[in-house]
Design goal:
The protein has 111 residues and is of the alpha+beta class. Helix content is 30%, strand content 25%. The longest helix has 16 residues.
């Protein structure tokens, strides 16, 4: 997990980045991993991620991570090309609050 901190004028913004690699090839299992990583990022209570959470999931072959969760999350940001962007999905704070509740969320049970 890393924190991306940006400053705009007098405002400081933060986005949490969570990254993992999986050997799972089943899209259902891959989706569960992404969902877990989003919940895990949202549970981090010392970083108020006002810009949301980014998940980078490395698979082989590489899937479009946003496609795995697009049916269960709103306002996702992701691309299906070039290949280097397939592994990334960004979920804004509003969508996290809508699905996971107030920040910080509970620590998810291990996957």
């Amino acid at each position: 997990m890393t924190v991306n901190k940006t400053v705009s004028g007098l405002q400081t913004h933060r986005r949490i980045w969570v990254e993992a690699t999986t050997d799972a090839t089943d899209s259902g299992a891959q989706k569960e991993i992404v969902e877990y990583l989003l919940a895990l990022g949202w549970s981090i209570n010392d970083v108020d991620a006002d810009k949301g959470i980014s998940v980078r999931l490395h698979t082989n072959p590489q899937v479009v991570v946003g496609d795995l969760v697009k049916s269960s999350w709103s306002d996702l940001e992701y691309r299906s090309s070039p290949d280097s962007f397939k592994e990334l999905v960004v979920v804004p704070r509003g969508a996290l609050e809508e699905k996971l509740g107030d920040w910080p969320g509970p620590v998810p049970a291990s996957a």
